[in-house]
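User: My instructor asked us to take a sequence, write out its structure as tokens, and then describe one feature of it. I'm not sure where to start. Here is the sequence I was given:
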Amino acid sequence: MFNTVLVANRGEIAVRVIRGCRELGIRTVAVYSEPDATSPFVRLADESVPLGGAKLSETYLDMRKILDAAAKTRAEAIHPGYGLLSENAAFPEACAQEGIVFIGPPSAAMRAMGGKAPSRELVKGLGLPTIPGSDGIVPRVEEALTIAGRLGYPVLLKASAGGGGIGMKVARDKDELQSAFETTQRLALAAFGDGRLIVEKLLEDPRHVEIQVASDGHGRTIHLFERECTVQRRFQKLLEETPSMALTEDLREEMGNAAVRIAQAAGYANLGTLEFIVSRGRFYFLEMNTRLQVEHPITEATTGLDLVHMQLQIAAAEAHLPAQGEIDRRGHAIECRINAEDPAKNFMPSPGTISKWIEPGGPHVRVDAGVAAGQTVSFLYDPLLAKLIVWAGSRHLAIRRMSRALSEFQVEGVKTTIPFHRALLENATFQSGQYTTAIAPQIKLG
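Assistant: Let's start with the prediction itself. The structure tokens for your sequence are:
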């Protein structure tokens, strides 16, 4: 196992990885920007290295600064967390050149699956269903208009290198497509350094279900069941749960097997997530996230497995993955993302200083937080403050437990998504389990 791991991320995921490392006896190094100097993850790490500056481009996205910090602290490996550099295929290559282990998939697998266009081609080659769309990159608006005419409106413009709901735009007619094309290209270029786009048919009001996979890189690839991610705003997830109420046992098995086949075909190693759209009893490949997901705790809650430990063990060539039939899942888990956003104002960001932060507790309640009272929330970074996770023996009790935990969660100084989640859990459609991606705009705050 590694002696020292540098965590190339911030916020709650940096805290999560540092804790996972500590449990395995691994020394940790944090890197931080000027606005994050007083963040909990900086204090929690065994050593912290300032990156200087505030912008992402001069801090958490600066490979050279991060690699220099790793060399300075003699870190043998780097954990990228999620977002930031986690899905940049050049980063594991740069790590390898410095003799540092990247805790994630190999760059070749990342290139095959991290981009939406190449991943679609790989999946289609396996004979698995994909959302109807362009065959590869669409460089010009004229070509996009031709493809949209063939598919039929509405269509979805998507950044090939995108993720987290960024770089996506719905076009319901040719005028919207023409006006959105260059704007989406520029947004994708600014966010990911890659302005290439693809065009897909927009499936209205589907379910968004993903499958967690793990591969030891030596022949064993398994899935750890599904996560329901249908509650979204602007293509970004707000609440996740498992098991999904949208799947029959046959469909669940079919999707799990498909996810394993895709990962094996890509030469994948470590943890990753295959995302699918489910509509009218059928599933369609959407994309692969070649990293640890934000919502991984609900898989941990229902399987008893520690996914961060698993990542570290695979990267250190010390993993002993269970056989597929040995993985047991029990109960129901829900995660609510506590964002610094105002749900009463269309989830407008709410920067400011947190004056009060009191987390809920009780049996089977978990809080993965990246902030504390007195900390300033910057508009420069992702608004996720914490994740609230509950487990129970049934979905009904999990909803009740989450409602109780949300009522105890006290945050002052910034607006949060807590009121939205409380209203959502009282919604009859959500409680029935028969909701779609259209549910978030339907939630009315009291």
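For the description part of your assignment, you could build on this observation: The chain is about 35% helix and 25% strand. Try explaining in your own words what that tells you about the chain.
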